[in-house]
Amino acid sequence: MTTRKNVAVTLIAQALSERLPWASKGACKGKDMRWWFPSGENSVKDRTTMKQALAICKECDVRQQCLDYALNNESDGIWGGLTTKQRNSLRRERRYTPIIQHK
Ligand code: SF4
Fold first, then answer.
1. How far is the CA of 36 from the centre of ligand 1 (A)?
2. CA of 70, closest atom in ligand 1
3. pLDDT digits (tens), the chain, 103 positions
4. Which residues are CB-neighbours of 12 under 8 A, at least 6 positions away?
5. Separation of 63 CA from ligand 1 center, angstroms?
6. What whole-number distance in Å separates Cα of residue 3 and Cα of residue 48?
7. What span, in angstroms and rounded, lies between the C-alpha atoms of 61 and 66?
8. Which residue owns the Cα nearest ligand 1 atom 2?
9. Alpha helices of 1-103 — where are they, by DSSP H?
């Protein structure tokens, strides 16, 4: 069934692959992008599709580029093998990690 959300997710994926050269090498290319944009993280279906997306990200050759991009540009969805919550946590850690200078 085609919903407005499915169409929007497909359009976002197409636009990103055209704008970000590394995206065409992503392991998610051609997959059902709804797995990367679950409507929540609480239902069994969402948790299952999120696990499938995260497993694909784990094997992706451009994972680091994807994560770097997402940390600066994306607030929703799975990017670079991290969920929205995990990226928010990483952003907080990086912001508050003191710089230790070795002498
Ligand atoms: S890390 Fe995940 S979301 Fe990013 S390009 Fe690779 S498979 Fe796609």
1. 9
2. 4
3. 456 666 666 666 666 777 888 888 999 988 988 899 887 667 778 889 999 999 999 999 999 999 999 999 888 899 999 999 999 999 999 886 666 666 5
4. 33
5. 6
6. 20
7. 10
8. 57
9. 4-19, 44-58, 63-73, 84-96
Query: What is the amino acid identity at position 56?
Result: I
Question: What three-state secondary structure class fits 99?
Answer: coil
What the block records as the tokens of 98 is 């003191």
Residue ranges covered by each domain of the chain:
4-96
Please give all residues whose beta carbon lies within 6 A of any atom in ligand 1, as ranges. Answer: 23, 26-28, 36, 56-57, 60, 62-63, 66, 78-81
